[in-house]
Design brief:
Blueprint (H helix, E strand, L loop, with lengths): L28 H17 L9 E4 L4 E2 L8 E2 L3 E5 L3 H4 L7 H4 L5 E5 L5 H15 L3 E5 L11 E7 L2 E4 L2 E3 L5 E5 L4 E6 L2 E6 L4 E2 L3 H39 L4
Parallel strand pairs: 5-6
Antiparallel strand pairs: 1-4, 2-3, 4-5, 6-7, 7-8, 9-10, 10-11, 11-12, 12-13
């Protein structure tokens, strides 16, 4: 884990933005479900529900990249940094690469009407300039905003090169992230992650909930069956006592 080299106090009042509030576009509802799904899957798979202090995952918070001016910043929809002190990052309320020790390793932008131009034009050169190894874009609409469904870029000699995408027989589009060691998939507008090591997709919160409900249903059915069997045994014992004249 990289040591966190905390600088001096931050004058939050002098910033042109509120470091204590997430910066979200007015049409955030267009992308919030997909962002929350990605965050949930990453928290579960990569951080093991915060049990790994060396992995930082966050959404819609500011990554500053000019030590002389904290107002020079970019706010990814989702970003991940490995090998960092996550517990030291959060109290600062801003991601400062010169204190963290590195820039984020993986960034994802999810399309919306108000952010499409920023995601397509402004952010790519910024991420390349500061050295983000992988930059992904996901359009839930199927391309209405980005003109593509899914796009992955990896940094090669200071420039982004496209990551190969494949389309499965069932129509799922996906590309492999070397950083995450997972494939990000576009499945009818919904984000999913495929794990090549296990040959399966990561379970979503919905699937987890459905599995829990199925388990609870099976346990309840088993309990009802057990109670019914106990009642049947009780009735047979009563009938046996009656036949023996014990009553």
């Amino acid at each position: 884990m990289l040591p966190y080299r905390k600088g001096g106090p931050i004058d939050y009042a002098s910033l042109e933005f509120d470091a204590f509030e997430k910066e979200v576009p007015p049409d955030h509802m267009e992308q919030s479900r997909e962002i929350h799904e990605v965050m949930g899957l990453l928290f579960a798979h990569i951080t093991d529900f915060h049990r790994r202090p060396d992995v930082f995952v966050d959404t819609d918070t500011n990554v500053c990249y000019d030590p002389s001016n904290l107002n020079v910043r970019v706010a990814p929809d989702v970003y991940v940094a490995f090998g960092v002190d996550s517990e030291a990052i959060r109290p600062r309320h801003i991601y400062l690469p010169w204190e963290v020790g590195k820039v984020p390793d993986w960034v994802l932008e999810v399309a919306s009407d108000s952010t499409r131009r920023v995601d397509l034009v402004r952010k790519p050169p910024i991420y390349a300039q500061i050295g983000v190894p992988e930059f992904w874009r996901f359009d839930p609409t199927g391309g209405r905003y980005y003109r593509f469904q899914l796009n992955g870029l990896k940094l090669v000699d200071g420039e982004y090169q496209p990551i190969e995408l494949t389309t499965e027989p069932d129509g799922i589009l996906k590309g492999y992230s070397e950083v995450l060691e997972l494939s990000l998939a576009w499945d009818n507008g919904w984000p999913r992650f495929y794990d090549p090591a296990s040959g399966t997709y990561l379970e979503t919160w919905r699937q987890d909930r459905e599995a829990l409900r199925a388990t609870q249903g099976a346990l309840q059915a088993e309990r009802r069956s057990r109670l019914a069997e106990q009642e049947r045994i009780r009735q047979l014992e009563e009938e046996l006592r009656r036949l023996r004249g014990e009553d």
